[in-house]
Structure formats: structure tokens, C-alpha cells
Amino acid sequence: MLDIWQDTLNWQPSTTEQALFQQLYELILAGNQKLNLTRITEAYEFWEKHLWDSVRGFKVLLNKKAEDALASSALKIIDIGTGAGIPGIPAAVTIANSTVDLLDSTQKKITFIDQVLTELKLDNAKTIVGRAEEIGQLRSHRQQYNIALIRAVSSATVCAEYALPLIKKGGLAIIYRGTWRDEENTALANAVPELGGEIECIDQFATPLTHSIRHCLHIRKIASTPAQYPRAVGVPTQRPL
Ligand code: SAM
Questions:
Q1: Which domain range does residue 87 map to?
Q2: C-beta 151 within 6 A of ligand 1
Q3: Is pLDDT at 213 greater than 70 in this prediction?
Q4: pLDDT tens digits, 46-58
């Protein structure tokens, strides 16, 4: 797959990163026997829909090595609703000088990820069990991250309400979407300024093997998020902004 990585992202995983991806695949397959982690289990499909898709979403962060080394401060990333660790584990594997918090509300998934992190010896990632609505109100997490990743968790507007309170001013929320409709665009454009954000781009692309259409939304945080956001558990999904 090295040629495809190179042709599509102008980037390739190192030998170590490839080995970690392979190990992650095997651990998720094994974990799937007991837990409902993913329906995507065939090797090429896993590569395209989990690994490639993860990296495609945060590719802007891959070539920041020199900059970050100069700044000598780690890029703080949170993956909200990480499930089996996607896209947060690929982020921890590939983004230089990063620390990644993997958040999910399901204890069983977090227990699984803890085992994966131990097996992969990934010491720049850790787990948090909880709801984004609660974590976003804690001083220890609110406005603490440079980057929030969020894939397959809820509508874009709800994802923005989960993500923006956690990001520092100047930071970026990367929301992974499949299809994207004009109505979603309108709802997001209304909600984002209220949360202190600005839509930077809506990036449409096709996956390299099955040519499925995907979208990645980049939302920049430009102002503090008002204290009432995120609202109480369940409210963002029941009454989206
Ligand atoms: N991000 C992974 C992926 O793309 O494969 C998992 C997606 S899975 C469909 C959604 C995950 O989000 C589930 O593991 C669920 O427990 C978690 N989740 C949903 N709402 C959440 C919330 N409010 N706070 C934290 N986790 C949440």
C-alpha cells in the first residue's frame, strides 16, 4: 500500500508505523470476537476505511515535524467517541510530537483500548471514559487541546458542540463525515459561530480503493466557547443547535 499512501497523501508510514498498523488490525480483529467494535474486518477494507481514512482526515498535521520540534511543545489531540481507537490511535502512531486522549462513553471499549495501547507500547496516548458533554465542562479538559478529531459519532452540529469547548483558541476540530448535504451545511454554519468557531473548509475526497465519497470539515476555534456549551448529556442530540 506504500504507493497508494504516497500518491494520495504524499506521505508513507515508516516501517515501525506499518508494523503498528498491522498489530492494531490484528488486535481489533481479536477484540471483535468479544466486543462489537467494527463491521469492517476484511484486510483491504480495514486499510481503506479505518487506516487510510483516519490519516486522510489529519494529513495536514503529518508534515509539521520540523515546526513542532522547533516549538518543542507536543500537539495535544483528543479523539471524541473513539470506539476501537479510530482515528485517535493512527494519530498517535503517525503524528510527530503528539499526545492523544482517546475519549469514549463505553467502559468496555476503553478497557479494550487500554490493552491495545499496552500491546503497541504507545506511551503518547491515554484513555478517558466519559461523555463529551461532561468532559467538555471539566477545567482539566476544557480549552486544553490543539486538535479534536471526531468520526462517526453524531451529526456535524452535535460534533461541533462536543469538540469546540475542548479546543484552545486557534485550535482545530476535524469532523469526519461520509456524505454531506446542503441542509447540513446550513445547520453547521448557524451553530459554529455560537460555539466560538469558524468553518475553515469542507474537504471532499474519494477513498482510493472503492472510490467512496467522504468529507472532512475543518472548524477553527476563533473565540472562547460560551460556558453553557456543551449542554447537559443528551441535550445536544435532542435539541441540536
Ligand atoms: N470513532 C470510531 C470510528 O470512527 O470507528 C467509533 C465510532 S462509533 C459509531 C461511535 C462511538 O462514539 C461509540 O463508541 C460511542 O460509545 C461513542 N460516543 C457516542 N456519543 C458519545 C458522547 N457523547 N461522548 C463520548 N463518546 C460517545
A1: 2-238
A2: yes
A3: yes
A4: 999 999 999 999 9
Ligand 1 lined by 132 (C-beta under 6 Å)? yes
3-state DSSP assignment of residue 211: coil
- Between CA 57 and CA 35 the distance in angstroms is 26
Number of independent structural domains in the chain: 1
Tell me if 214 CB under 6 Å of ligand 1: no
Give yes or no for residue 86 CB within 6 A of ligand 1: yes
The pTM of this model reads 0.96
- CATH number for 85: 3.40.50.150
Q: Is 89 in the pocket of ligand 1 (CB under 6 A)?
A: no
Nearest CA to 167 out of 215, 90, 225 is that of: 225
For residue 62, the model assigns a pLDDT of 87
- 209: amino acid identity, one letter: L
pLDDT band at 212 (very low <50, low <70, confident <90, very high): very high
237 C-alpha to ligand 1 centroid (Å): 13
